[in-house]
Known about the structure:
The protein has helices at 8-15, 27-36, 40-58, 63-68, 81-86, 88-112, 118-130, 146-154, 244-247; strands at residues 137-138, 170-177, 183-189, 195-200, 217-221, 224-231, 234-241. The protein is rod-shaped, with a radius of gyration of 41 Å. The termini are far apart. 39% of the residues lie in helices and 17% in strands. Strands 1-2-3-4-7-6-5 form a 7-stranded antiparallel beta sheet. By secondary structure, it is of the alpha+beta class.
Amino acid sequence: xxxxxxxxxxxxxLNCAPTGEERVRDRTMRAVISRAGKSHEFVNxxxxxxAVAALVRVIPMPPETAEWFxxxxxxxSKWTWKKTVRNPAVLAIGIALVVIAGVLVFQFVAxxxxxxxxxxARKLLAIAGSTRSVLLDPVNADAGTLSDLFFMKHGxxxxxxxxxxxxxxxxxxxxxxxxxxxxxxxxxxxxxxxxFFLFPAERDVKTGAVLKFPGWRYVHQENWIGxxxxxNGVCFMxxxxxxxxxxxxxxxxxxx
Length: 256
């Protein structure tokens, strides 16, 4: 009996047919085997497959190969926590999680010290680090006297230097617009090459009211430190290259 005409897919299934029909669970496979019936070619193939399977079962497995399939190899007791921690993949994931957690904590702590105008203050610290004295108009006077110059020449009201810094001798000053078209006054003084900035205070978007904050607040940007206070809707910032301890002596103790 010859094998009946089968499609290519059916022939592929017949080539993969198991040696025992009791193992056939696929409906399509059972249909192909049933159609092939007791054909001479199919019976010979089945007999050959059974003989090969029986031969394979009696071949002894080398001890070193048997260890690969031992249940002890995948036993949970083999994977202690020390071995797991030393795994390079686990170490890489752990380090990445620690770095991410550190960045999130740093950002959270930084936001705790935010105040209305802190974002502008940080931008001005960046400007302070890139400004050269030749960009400013030379002025040799006390910093406290420049409020009249800002008002008469630029129409800026309440751009007053606080009394704590009013007696510092200036090297130069200028007025410029930032990226949000706000008028910024910049003063360079001889004391520790310190720079002062006067800029409009933040306002409520809906009401337009000034968002006030008490005392002095510190901001950091790269290697610069700034101390900011607010008066009459204008923020004043004293900035210098260094750390907070370098600026603290100039800030009134009762207003920190």
